[in-house]
Amino acid sequence: MTTPNSNDFTVKFANVNGTGSSSANGMFMKSIFRMGIPVVGKNYFPSNIQGLPTWYEVRVNENGYLAPSGSVDIMVAMNAQTYEEDLNAVESGGYLIYDSSWPRETLMSRDDITVLGVPLAKMCNKAFDTARSRTLMKNTTYVGVLAALLEMDMKVIEQLLLDTFGSKTHLIDANKQALEMGYDYAKEHFDCPLPFKAVATDKTKDHFIIDGNATSALGCVYAGATVGSWYPITPSTSLMDAFSRYCANFRVDEKSKKNNYSVIQAEDELAAIGMALGAGWNGARSFTPTSGPGISLMNEFIGFGYYAEIPTVIFDVQRTGPSTGMPTRTQQCDILSCAYASHGDTKHVCLYPADPEEAFYLAVNAFDIAEQLQTPVFVLTDLDIGMNDWMIKDLEWDDKFVPNRGKVLDENALENMEQFHRYLDTDGDGIPYRTIPGVHPKGAYFTRGSGHNKFGGYTEDASEYQDVVDRLLIKWETAKSIVPSPIKDFNKKNKMAILSIGSCDDAIREARDLMSKDGHDFNYLRVRAFPFSKYIEEFIDKHESVFVIEQNRDGQLLKLLQTETSCDVSKLKSIRLYNGIPVFPKDVVSNIMKEISSGKAA
Amino acid sequence: MSYIKKPNIFRTNAPKNELGMTYTDYEGAMSTLCAGCGHDSITGAIIQSVFDLNIPPHRMIKMSGIGCSSKTPAYFANQSHGFNSVHGRMPSVATGANAANRELFCIGVSGDGDTLSIGMGQFSHAIRRNVNMLYIIENNGVYGLTKGQFSASADVGSTAKKGEANKQVPIDPCQVAIALGATFVARSFSGDKDQLIPLLKAGLMHKGFAMVDVISPCVTFNDHDGSTKSYMSTRESKREAVYTDYIAPFNEIEVNYEKGSSIEVDLHDGGRVILRKTDESYSPQSRGDSVKNIRAASEDGELLTGLLYIDESQHDFTDTENMIDSPLNSIEYKTLCPGKKALKNLLDSYR
C-alpha cells in the first residue's frame, strides 16, 4: 500500500527512447532537489538510440535513501508499447497518468489504482508548430501535471528553466507554456494535490546531483592525470566524455591555447590499455575507462603491467555479463576477473566505491596507489554508480594535497648513483625504484614481460625468476597497508552482520533500518579494496553469521573471501541479486529473513 | 635468448660524435640472434645512424613487440630506455609514451609477423595518427622463434625450408602504409647499409610516422633456394627507385646532383632529404605514383627500394591533438589541479 506520506514516493516515467524525455524527467527531479527534498534518479534504458522503451525512476525520500524503493507510486505511462507492464507495476493505491488524446476502445485498468488521463498530444499539437517541439513539449507538459498533483513550487521549476536554457529564450518560453498547460489542466480536472506531495524542506543543502562517471572523471582531473586512452563502451563512455569536458574547462594552457592533457580514442581496448601503460611508463598519470568486455580484451596487457610494474588506472564500469550481456544493466560481475586478470600468477589492487561521492575520492587515491605500488590499479564501479543521477554530499578538496608519485629517481639521484637496477628491493617493502625515460642516461633499463632478474636483465634462470615473482608478493603485502580500509558499523551485541561491496551500500543501509525496526540488528562491513585488509577477517570472526550481499550470480566476493582470507567460511551466507536492476532494500530484507527463518543462519 | 653483456673495450682513438660519444657508447647487449641474421646488420645501421645524428641516448626510447625482430632493441643504445611489449601491440605503447613526452626520439622495431598479422590493427592506427616515430619492420617472411611458419609477407610460391610453397597473397607493408596515409614510407635491405643508414636517419628526423620496411633474411629458416626473401634472391630482385641522402641541419656540404633528377625535402629539424630518382617517371611525393610503381615492379618480380613516399606537410599526432609543446609528464601538479575554488564553482552547476 502506498502510504499517504509526503516526501516519500516514487515516480516512474515510461518513455520511448529518442523522444527527448530525459531532459524533462531530469527537470522534474532537479526541481524536487531544489525544493530541498532528497531525491535519486535511476535510468532503465535500452541499448538502442531510438524507438525502444526506456524508463526513468525518481525516488523522493526525505530520509535520503538512495536505492530504488522497488515500488512505483505514480507511473507516467507515455509508451503504449509497455502500457500493460507499466500499469501492473503501480503499487496498490497509486496513480497512473497517460496520454488520453485518442479514445481507446477498451482501456486496461485496475480497480485499486487511480488512472488519470491527460490529452497531452492534443494539447501540444494545438499549442506548438513543429513536429519536434510537439513531441518534446509533451514531456514538459506532464511535468506540469505532476507539479500540480504534487503541489510543487512552480517558481522553482521556472527558475530551473532559466538556469538550464540561459539565453535561449524561445526554449524558455515554450517550456514555460507547456509547463503551465499541464499544471492548469491538472488543477482543473483532478483533485490536487494527491494524498502524498512534495513539501519543501532543507535536506539537500551542501549536496548536488551527479553521476559516478562524472565524479570518477573529476577524480582523474584532480589526481593530475594527463593521458586518458579509451575505446567507447557502455556504460563507461560518459566517463571519458566528462574527462574531456572538464579538461576543456580546466586544462587548456591560457597562453598557447594548447592542451595540458591528451585524450586518445583507441582502435580497441587492447590499444587503449597499451597506451595507458606506455604513458604510465613514461611518467604521465594515465588511465583507461572500460567495462567487462574491455577487461577481457585487456587481459594480456594487464599481466604485463603487473609483471613489468607499470602504474596506470583502469576504471571498470561494470555491466551485466557474461559476453555482451545486457550493456545497459548493472551488475558486480567482474570482481574475480579484475582481481586475477591475465594469465600466470597475477593479482591486482582493486578499489570498490559505493557511490559517485566515493568514486571521486577513490579515483584520486587510485593514481597514488598505482604509482606507489608501480602497478595497474582497478577502480570498479558499475552502471548504477556510473550512469544514474545521485544526490551526494559536496566534494571536498584540500589545496595542500600533493600527489604521491612513489619511488621515482630524479636526475640528481641518478647522477649521484653508482648504478641503477630496476627491480632491486632495497627498502624491503617489495617496491623497487623506477626511472622515467629521458631524465638521465644512468636511468636506462629494459622493460619486458619476459623473465627478468632483479637487476632488470633477461633471465631464464630458475632462482632469478622466482626471486622477482616472490618479491611481487612482498609488494602485495605492502599493498594491504596502502589501500583504503573497509567501512565498518560494529556493535558487539550483534551476532549477525552484513558484508557487502560497492553500490549495494545504500540498499543495505535502508534494509538495516527496516530490519532494525523489527528487532533484527545487523553489523555491517563494506569492503573497499582488494587485497583485503586484516580487519575483514577479524570482523567475520566476531560474528556467528555474515550475509555476503553482492550483485552477481556466482557469489564472486564470497569466493574471493574464501580464497584470500582464512575466515571460517561456514559463517558466510551468500545473497546474490543479479537481475541487472540496482538492489532494492526490500529484496535485501526478504532474502536475509528467508535465510534466517529457514534456520540456515544462526 | 640470454642476456649477455658485452665486454667493455676502450679505444683511445675511436671517433667521437658532437656529444663526445663513440660508436661503442651506442651499442647494447651482445646479440643472441643466429650468426648471419639480417637483423644484426640493421642493429648496426641503427647504431651508426643515431651516432651520426648525435642523439643523446637517454633522449631516445626503444620499443618492440614479440619475435626475433623485437629482441633487437636490447642490442643497441643501452643508455636508452627499452620497452619489449606484447605481441603486435608495440604501436599503442609507443603512442602512449609519445603522448606523455613528445620530445623523446622513438624507435620501434617490429617484424613481419608482429606487424602484418597480430599487429596489423595497431600498425594501421599508428599510421592513421601519424605518431612521431621511426618504425622499422625487420621483414624475413617467416616466424623464426616458432621455427619457420610462413608470415603474412611471404610471397606466393616462395617455399619453406621443407619445400612447401606459400599459396596466400602477401601483404606489402609499403603499399598498405601508403594507402593508409603514412607520411614516410621506405624499403631497404639489411645487406645494403649504404642505402639503409640515410633512410633510418631521415626517418628519425621526419616528424611523424616513418616506416622503413627492411628485407632481413632469416639464415636459419628462409635463406634457401626457392625463398624470395633469401640474401641471394633479395640481392637479385632489389631495384633502387629513389636514392636518399640525409643532410643534417647547418651542414654546408655542396650537393651536386643532375638537374631534374633530384628533389630536396626540408625536414622539421632543419635537415634536408635529397632524393635522387633512378627513374624519371617516379614521384615519391605522389601516393598514387608510388603505389603504382611498387605494384608494377612487383609484377615484374622486382623489389622496389628507397624512400618510396614522403609527405612532410602533415601534423604529427601530438600536434593534431593540440598538445602543449612541452612534455605532459613534466607539467607541475599545481597547473594540472583546478583546486578547491574551481570545484566549488563546478558543483554549483550541478544543483
Fraction of residues in helix of chain A:
25-40%
The termini of chain A sit apart by 32 Å
| Shape annotation of chain A | globular
What is the CATH homologous superfamily assignment of the largest domain in chain A?
A: Pyruvate-ferredoxin oxidoreductase, PFOR, domain III
Number of DSSP-assigned strands of chain B: 12
Mean pLDDT reading of chain B: 92
> What is the domain tally of chain A?
4
Derived from helix and strand composition plus strand pairing, the structural class of chain B reads alpha/beta
What is the third-level CATH name, the topology of the largest domain in chain A? Answer: Pyruvate-ferredoxin Oxidoreductase, domain 3
| Biggest chain-to-chain interface with counts | A-B, 77 and 63 residues
Q: What is the CATH superfamily of chain B?
A: Thiamin diphosphate (ThDP)-binding fold, Pyr/PP domains
What's the structural blueprint in terms of helices and strands?
The complex is a heterodimer of chains A (602) and B (351).
Chain A: E1 8-16, H1 21-34, E2 39-44, E3 53-61, E4 72-77, H2 83-89, E5 90-99, E6 114-118, H3 120-127, H4 131-149, H5 154-165, H6 169-189, E7 207-210, H7 212-223, E8 227-230, H8 237-250, E9 262-265, H9 269-281, E10 286-290, H10 292-308, E11 312-318, H11 335-339, E12 349-351, H12 356-373, E13 376-382, H13 383-387, E14 390-393, H14 411-415, E15 446-448, H15 462-482, E16 487-489, E17 496-501, H16 505-517, E18 523-527, E19 529-530, H17 534-541, E20 545-550, H18 556-564, E21 572-576, H19 585-597
Parallel strand pairs in A: 1-4, 4-5, 5-6, 8-9, 8-10, 10-11, 11-13, 12-13, 17-18, 17-20, 20-21
Antiparallel strand pairs in A: 1-3, 2-3, 7-14, 12-19, 16-18
Helix pairs in contact in A: 1-4, 1-5, 3-4, 4-6, 5-6, 7-8, 7-12, 9-10, 16-19
Chain B: H1 38-52, E1 60-64, H2 68-71, E2 81-84, H3 90-100, E3 105-111, H4 112-116, H5 120-129, E4 133-139, E5 142-143, E6 149-150, H6 173-180, E7 184-189, H7 193-205, E8 209-215, H8 231-237, E9 238-247, E10 262-266, E11 272-277, H9 287-299, E12 303-310, H10 317-320, H11 333-336, H12 339-348
Parallel strand pairs in B: 1-2, 1-3, 3-4, 4-8, 7-8, 9-12
Antiparallel strand pairs in B: 5-6, 7-12, 9-11, 10-11
Helix pairs in contact in B: 1-7, 3-5, 6-9
